[in-house]
Write a structure and sequence with these properties.
alpha/beta, eight-stranded mixed sheet, globular, 375 residues, single chain, 9 helices, 12 strands, four-stranded antiparallel sheet
């Protein structure tokens, strides 16, 4: 997929609030008129995967995306007793290689421990509502409206010493779905859908701004979402797997060929794949796989309501941690209506062992504070 080496390229990781595949025209043709025309155009020039979030909430997303750590506990990692564990995110790996690292989120400083989690993941410089320092653009609930904050982000990125690695987490597509008074939307879309359209508008303006900077062409942009959208219209997304479907894409036309890859990919694959794409020859810890090689096979793992989900891209396993509850063939049964486990239980022992080995590694490493690569 990578047509030329990306040594010393910058990285901008975009995490879009509540942007499930269902909201994005590139992934979902259900809307007569796409809510995301700009994002669609970007994804068409990217390598994209059938993305899956490893959690259901924003606070679960950062450890997964930044550190390759899925959310497999009843308590999210930042709120758990293990939050003091050492985590070496891809930000630390890049920082050790001379990168300037920064995290941008227009929300109230301290919200959902984003500042602490990003710092422990290797992102030194934090920019939030306090750093923006102009509450005329405050949305009244969460923080600074995305269009204004992304313009601020563009200017701050340009000040960073190169090469840099930055994560940007948007916020406007979140309940109560507030829109700035200087932005009008006369469509009949739902309030949430209107904020999706607004964020797409903000992304367009952001990319127009940064395209003027000399570092733009030598930057890898990675696009994903924290979790799926809060409301569903289409049947393909009204099942236990569809409620995890998010975008995962890598955009760098100078270096990466555009291609729509139908393989599943997950949050925890992102960090290790960025390190690989940048041609950094360094060992790093992750529960995910490098999307740019063929050594490891696609997988997905998550936990919700006392049940684990595990998939190899063909089958989806549902387990209580000890016993398989259900098996679905996700290639032929898109709506996941037919539990095929009891047909031939012995056929799924290998899949079950793959799941349990990952869960065992997760539990053992979490308890022993061994969530990093030991040289």
């Amino acid at each position: 997929f990578i047509k030329s080496k990306m040594n010393n390229c910058n990285v901008v990781l975009l995490i879009l609030e509540s942007f499930g595949q269902e909201m994005i025209g590139y992934y979902n043709k259900g809307y007569e008129k796409s809510l995301t025309p700009f994002l669609d155009s970007l994804l068409k020039e990217s390598i994209t995967f059938n993305g899956l979030a490893n959690g259901r909430r924003s606070i679960e997303a950062l450890p997964s995306v930044l550190c390759g750590l899925p959310s497999l506990m009843s308590t999210d990692y930042p709120s758990s007793k293990y939050a003091i564990n050492r985590l070496d995110g891809f930000g630390k790996t890049l920082k050790d290689k001379g990168y300037t690292t920064a995290f941008f989120h227009g929300g109230n400083n301290g919200t959902m421990s984003f500042d602490i989690t990003s710092k422990s993941s290797g992102f030194d410089n934090y920019y939030g509502r306090n750093e923006y320092n102009n509450d005329k653009d405050f949305d009244g609930t969460w923080g600074i409206y995305d269009n204004e904050f992304l313009q601020f982000t563009a200017k701050e990125l340009n000040k960073l010493k190169k090469p840099f690695a930055a994560t940007i987490f948007t916020l406007s597509s979140h309940h109560p779905y507030s829109l700035p008074c200087n932005y009008t939307d006369t469509t009949t879309n739902s309030p949430f859908e209107k904020t999706v359209r607004y964020v797409d508008f903000a992304l367009k303006n952001f990319f127009e701004a940064i395209s003027e900077y000399e570092w733009f062409e030598n930057t890898l942009f990675v696009i994903t979402a924290d979790h799926v959208n809060p409301e569903h219209k289409f049947d393909d997304y009204k099942n236990i797997l569809g409620t995890y479907n998010i975008p995962i894409a890598f955009y760098a036309p100078k270096y990466i060929d555009s291609k729509k890859v139908n393989e599943i990919a997950q949050h925890i694959d992102i960090g290790i794949s960025i390190i690989s794409a940048l041609n950094i020859n360094e060992s790093a810890f992750s529960f995910g796989r490098n999307l740019f090689d063929s050594i490891q096979k696609p997988t997905f793992i998550s936990y919700n309501n006392n049940l684990y989900l595990f998939s190899d891209g063909k089958y989806l396993l549902q387990s209580d941690g000890k016993n398989i509850q259900k098996i679905y063939d996700i290639t032929s049964d898109k709506s996941l209506k037919n539990n095929i486990y009891h047909n031939n239980p012995q056929d799924y022992e290998k899949l079950d062992n793959k799941f349990k080995s990952r869960l065992q590694q997760y539990n053992n490493r979490m308890i022993s504070n061994n969530l990093y690569y030991i040289k």
